[in-house]
Write a structure and sequence with these properties.
Distance between the termini: 27 Å
Shape: flat
Number of helices: 12
Strand content: 5-15%
Number of strands: 5
Helix content: 55-70%
Order of helices and strands: HHHEEHHHHHHHEHEHE
Length: 278
Amino acid sequence: MSNFELPLIHETAIRVEGKRGMTVNQAYNPDMKYYFTNFPEFISASKTTFVNATPLLENSTVLSWISLGLLAVGTVLGAMKIRIKRNKESIGAAIAFLISVAIFTQVSSIVTIIITFIGLYLIGKDSQHKEYLAMLGWILSFYIFFTYFNIRVNRYIIPAIPPIIYFIMLSIELIHEKIKINKNIIPLILIIMFVIQGFTFTSTYEDIPNFKAPEEISDYIIQNNPDYENQSIGVYNLRPYSWYLQTDVEGIPTGNTTYIESIQCNVLHFQQRTKQFN
């Protein structure tokens, strides 16, 4: 019986513990600006490339920059509308935020998130805009949780999509308060553009080895090694092989020939990019 451990559950557990990820993971990326600098591509991109077998979105589209423009205008209008009183609560919130920044890379992300939410609570407990702060907390908790961990991939942005959509719609509402136009025009234009971009982006998919290799090699292992669940399998990309094989696999750092040469004879080593089965 395999002791297969779901990567999502495992990674969530080690993040809570305060660990930051291992270099053997194909998606290891120490760039803490990753989710910020790639945000335009997360909204809308026109190309997918691969870096160390990990997909990366490239070439942000006009739709992305329109969305960012709406968010920027909405942020300015919202800041003009919301007034934060200078009192002991706001001072306490400022101190909480400063502490969060200071300890961000020093302790578990969960601790930082809790302190950040304490700051948001102090600001919002007597505010008329609690829902704004709740959505902001949602985005900040995502950013802190995933940025702290050095395993970074495109799909981790998904939990932050709902509050981002909320703030885009809120920005449109604030713009309508200043500019008297039909309230359906901007949302309708955005919906049409996102639908078109969705089909356009899907059409850019290429059935290349980067996508197909993990499944094909996993099938080969299953067919030719009936006892594979009781063997150690070294791979360059943990996630797809864990999924297709439904068993734990061992990560191999890319280009680490010393590590590869040290693998014992009972370890199956399959290099997905060469697809050499024999």
